Request: fold
Amino acid sequence: MKVLRFNRNTLQFPKKDFDMVKEGVISLVISGVVIVGLSALWGAPYRAAVTNQEIAQKSPILIERAALGDLDGSGTIASYGPPYNNGWNRQENGVQSIGSFHPQTWWGTPYPIDAAKTDVLTPLHMLANASDNQQLQSALQTYQSASVKQQQTWDSNLSKALKKANVENGNVVIPRGNYGPVALMMNDELSLAKSGMLSGILDRSSNQGVYRWNVQNDLLFLQGKTLHQIAGKINMKGEQWGINHDEQAYPGPWWLTPYTFLYQIPPWSTSSAGDELAAYTIAVLFAILLFVPWIPGLNKLPRLLSIHRLIWRDWYKRLESDNTCANCPLRESCRQEFRNSKQAVVKSGFAPACYQNGSNS
Amino acid sequence: MNWTKSIRTRMSEKLSWENLLPSEQPVYVSSLVYSFGVFTLSSLVFCIASGVIMAAKGPLWYQYSGLGEFLRSIHFWSVQAFFFFMTMHLVVQFFMGSWREGRTVTWVIGVLSFGISVVDAFTGYLSRGDFFSQWNQVQSKDAFNGAGMDGFLNILNNGQVYGIHIVVLPFILFILVGWHLLAVRSKGVVPPYPARLKKKDGV
Reply:
């Protein structure tokens, strides 16, 4: 008896007319009207970048505290560790580690920063030389030739004083005390920032040549309390779903929601390696999405959920109204989705109703 | 074995004009959800077109010029549209189990395209040159450093970030999307799950 062999490649579903080019052109026109229309109506969000100069003029104490933190090693970047430095006195506070897994340290310090030198001493030396400022020259010499203990005493005294400091006419006013040359140095650092030249000097230090493409040192000078204060006011901090939203009334990068969500719950929100943990959690979740076709259970989930019945409702309605499947000899093979080399065999002369005639081979 | 002949044979079988530019589709292709894919591509066209113009004028132009700002707005909204349609496309394809019957590669390339797009969009946000860029650069440095990416990516280096945004990732995305499209066209649209049969039908 002659039999017919079927596999999925030899089956052809009934066809209908379709114009791919027309569909493409129509979708381009619709997308264009919507995108250009939204752009014309609402524009796009933009909040001017913050500069050292602006902070120095509005919140001079912040600048002095940031600079002093860089000088005395209490600032975040001064003791960060790789990729910027080896910490402050070998104490690294910015290295994240899950157990003994800390890939951050694998590459050494490719983007070196000696915070005291980069952010304070070098800019002040340049200022002193450019303006022939003998007082500042002498203050720098005094500071650099003093013992570490002496430096720490001056730094610590000024650090305490800055907590009680006031601003008068844009200048930082502190109580009298034993600050050595550091008070003068910080005042001059503030003047440098106010003039706008500090950013230029910091940019110069993170770019080896004439071109200024790397904003690392300028941004890292601002990155602690300074930027956090501004970000907090517009709900941009991590615990405020910061990265997930843009300026109010504009949609932000909402596709980062799973990532930002992690920062709202423990252990990601509480761990000292929260960023590393979040990055690898997202990597694992992405791998799961990538390998869905091979993950038992997950690859069958869409079949269990009935949403496909909604998407293909016309098709299923048609099968039901024709009672197509009732006596179909292919139904078992169909149920198994003809995977691999699976074939179905039926008697000659039978044409399954949901496929086109002549589809067998 | 003649590699050239083998490639030519496979390509001409899989990438026939009938597959590449079909004028017919199976009858089950009858839902608006099928348009998410083509709308994703249309939005991508506007992303690329606006991006190319902005790249030609340089990364400062869109921060001070009125026309530049308009182009940046088109780029912004086309990215929003692109992600909206791509996410809908991904979700719907999951519910359709679209990796079935020899389409696993199509799924994998699609998901990879999604991942590359997310990173590309992020580097775009960092290239805006405003407070949002500054803030996200300093915030994300800990994640990139902590994950061990610091060896080859300094997220605070605008030159590197901008180059990655306008060339490296779009180039990879272009290849992946092209491959995804060819895979979809050569395999055809995934067929529906078999119908659930009623008990009276004997199953």
